[in-house]
Design a protein that fits this description.
This protein has 426 residues and is of the alpha/beta class. The protein has two domains: 142 residues, Lyase, Ornithine Decarboxylase, Chain A, domain 1 (Beta Barrel); 240 residues, Alanine racemase (TIM Barrel). Strands 1, 10, 11, 12, 13, 14, 15, 16 and 17 form a nine-stranded mixed sheet that branches. Strands 2-3-4-5-6-7-8-9 form an eight-stranded parallel barrel, surrounded by five helices. Strand 8, helix 10 and strand 9 form a beta-alpha-beta unit. It is globular and about 70 Å long. The protein starts with a helix and ends in a 15-residue tail after the last strand. About 1% of the residues have low confidence. The protein binds pyridoxal-5'-phosphate. The site of pyridoxal-5'-phosphate has 14 residues, from loops.
């Protein structure tokens, strides 16, 4: 995020309770426009935003206003996407462990496609298709006509090696995601003879934070050929192929992911004559650079001669560093001109009682950093708040939009009474 945007708000930020997330809504809107602009013109291409990246209602509304659809992975995400205005015929439902309850709800809402990840899930949907019972637990209107076939997709595991962190690599043969070749074959055979289900498309998501365009080109070629073969072998006609998300952002200065234009050009090349709608399911690239986590230094210490800054934000607020050693650049808000400031390497940690609660082991920050200073943890708009928890009984952070030189609350900070409000004291 543009630092000057926040520097102008320094006084206001100083008065707020930290930690909190701040987002630049204009950046998100313009990034969505750029992505749509970069899509291949010859294909009927559409975007399904991966809601898991950031599911703040106000952010979902910005994205749904762009006529972008949603990729959801739980009943909760599906309900929230609908509440945010995503049209049900632009929603796809992925996920390796959808419950029966979630499947029933998705069927009732008549979404674009339930992206099936296993033969057992296919059988379950088939059974539901035969019954098409009313859902007893929810009072939302049922949109699906009783006799219409249920639209499904198959999420495939292409078994491609991708250069990214192993915890966000989803497409090797040991991964739990998607269908392998035998499951795919069996599913096609079932779908070819089953009038109650309509196979609309195939999808694959090979992993996240991918910065090498060759990985995507490999996937695009694989997807095109697999879709052609599937149509030829099954006699079924697909209406879409989805190449998932995964395009990376620049968390470090030397990290140079493909631009949206380069990514779009690779898609154009692979899908020159595309008989199908072409979907993408990006999350990170639409929101990561738009967000910062704002935090205060609450303690300072020196351990084994290493200066340590202890923040009031922890792994419960931003889990990525603890979960996969992810890097987030950290800056001091008070020091507007770091080129004229003497820098020192600090270990920057959170307050949570876990050794992995470390934002950086070696972050260059002004040498006169002190308790009370505010720091900006950059590129925190994706997989930040959406992964936050109340671990150590810490309240959830607030979320703000930066608008017209002010901060507008889009989610209230958690309060202590939230922490055990659902418990039944015996
Ligand atoms: C099925 C699916 N699609 C899309 C995405 C979005 O990935 P990214 O945020 O890397 O674009 C994910 C992320 O895990 C996913 O599981």
């Amino acid at each position: 995020m543009n630092r000057t945007l926040l520097a102008q708000l320094e006084k206001k930020i100083g008065k707020l309770r930290t930690p909190f997330y701040a987002y630049d809504p204009q950046w998100i809107a313009s990034q969505a426009d750029k992505l749509l602009e970069a899509l291949p013109k010859q294909a009927r291409a559409g975007v399904r935003y991966a809601v898991k990246a950031n599911s703040n209602l106000s952010i979902l509304k910005i994205i749904s206003n762009k006529k972008i659809g949603a990729d959801v992975v739980s009943g909760g995400e599906l309900e929230k996407a609908l509440a945010a205005g995503f049209a049900s015929d632009r929603i796809v439902f992925s996920g390796v462990g959808k419950t029966r309850d979630e499947l029933e709800y998705a069927i009732q809402q008549n979404i674009d496609s339930i992206q099936i990840e296993s033969v057992s899930e296919l059988h379950q949907i088939l059974e539901l298709a035969r019954r098409k019972s009313a859902h007893p637990a929810r009072n939302t209107p049922i949109k699906s006509p009783i006799n219409a076939p249920i639209s499904v997709g198959l999420r495939l595991n292409p078994n491609l090696k991708v250069d990214t962190h192993k915890h966000i690599h989803t497409s090797d043969r040991f991964s739990k995601f998607g269908m392998d070749a035998p499951a795919f074959k069996e599913s096609l055979q079932i779908l070819a003879r089953e009038p109650k289900l309509k196979l609309k498309g195939l999808s694959a998501h090979i992993g996240s934070q991918i910065t090498d365009l060759r990985s995507f080109s490999m996937l695009f070629d694989w997807m095109r050929e697999t879709a052609k073969q599937a149509e030829a072998q099954s006699g079924l006609e697909l209406s879409y192929v989805s190449v998932g998300g995964g395009l990376g952002v620049s968390y470090r200065e030397n990290e140079k992911p493909p631009t949206l234009k380069q990514y779009g050009a690779a898609l154009s090349k692979a899908f020159k004559q595309c008989p199908w709608n072409l979907y993408l399911e990006p999350g990170r690239i639409l929101v990561a650079p738009a967000g910062v986590l704002v935090s205060r230094v609450v303690q300072q210490k020196v351990q084994n001669r290493k200066p340590i800054l202890v923040l009031d934000a922890g792994m419960n607020d931003l889990m990525r560093p603890a979960l996969y050693g992810a890097h987030h650049q950290i800056e001091s808000l008070r020091h507007s001109n770091v080129t004229r400031t003497e820098l020192k390497k600090f270990k920057v940690v959170g307050p949570v009682c876990e050794s992995t609660d470390v934002f950086s082991g070696n972050m260059a920050l002004p040498s006169d950093m002190q308790v009370g200073d505010i720091v900006l943890i950059h590129n925190a708009g994706a997989y930040g708040f959406s992964m936050a928890s109340q671990y150590n009984l810490r309240t959830l952070p607030a979320e703000y939009f930066i608008e017209d030189n002010s901060l507008r609350l889009v989610r209230r900070p958690g309060v202590i009474s939230d922490l055990w409000k659902d418990e039944i004291s015996l």
